[in-house]
Amino acid sequence: MENEIELKLMLNADNIPVMLDWLARLPSLAQGQDLLANCYYDTADQFFARHKMGLRVRTKNHRHELTLKTAGNIVGGLHIRPEYNLALPNNQPDFAALVAHYQLQFGDIGELHPIFSTDFERQYWLVAYHGSQIEIALDQGWIKNTFGKAPICELEFELKQGKIADLFDLLDTLPNASGIWLSSLSKAQRGYLVGNAAEIAKNIAKLTACNEKALSPTAQYQFEQQLVDFIRLTQDPALIALYHQQNPDQPIDSVDYLYSYTYLTRNLAIMRSLALR
């Protein structure tokens, strides 16, 4: 079991050349490229989705690995969560073997079914920054489920060794460009949502029913980021009104603001204060 500490940025595709130029100027220890095929599984009653977990089989270079990602903590785009990995002889998910290997406490969860896939090309750089090592991965590809598909265009920063403060210091050097934004939605969460109007409506209902004032400061910020993710996804006027109600000092004149460099840097500053306090 490992604790994965990563931060995810979503990109407009036209920002890729800007990001590649920025990456080329960083002190790289290693770099490479992989093609990753991922199939996510769940039960008929969505056991893993209900418990905010993800179960996937990843195939890379003809090798297969089963990964269980547990809920952990997600603050904005910063993901800190335990994950369990097990090598497989083929691309079939042997959940019983993973449970036995790590002695996890699961009962009979039922039969597993493939739910969606995330297939993408990953370019990666291992960067030395201050006293830390940070892996930066540029992922480009597609999320596909039975309802449709959506593009993947993401930049992920994973702290391999060192301090979270160094990760945020590196992010302070990002190019000043719009169309780069933090997202609390993982590829797995997006896999359940793509084209699925009922699932999107269910998540919106949870957001509008939430008593944000009763939450802790960290939970309030995470709620705001979930709200903003669904505003970007749907541009729902009710969600925009809810955002205005809870953030009267930050009126959204246009949804474009949520993709702006100003909004990105504001959120990075908040996340730094929450992560380092």
Automatic annotation (TrEMBL):
The family database entries (SUPFAM superfamilies) matched by this protein are listed as:
CYTH-like phosphatases
Molecular function GO labels: inorganic triphosphate phosphatase activity; metal ion binding
Q: Which SMART domains match?
A: CYTH
Q: Which InterPro entries match?
A: CYTH-like_dom_sf, CYTH_domain, YgiF
Cite a single Pfam family from the UniProt record: CYTH
Q: Which PROSITE patterns does the record associate with it?
A: CYTH (PS51707)
Source domain of life: Bacteria
Domain CYTH stretches: 2-198
* Name of this protein: Adenylate cyclase
Print the organism lineage.
Answer: Bacteria, Pseudomonadati, Pseudomonadota, Gammaproteobacteria, Pasteurellales
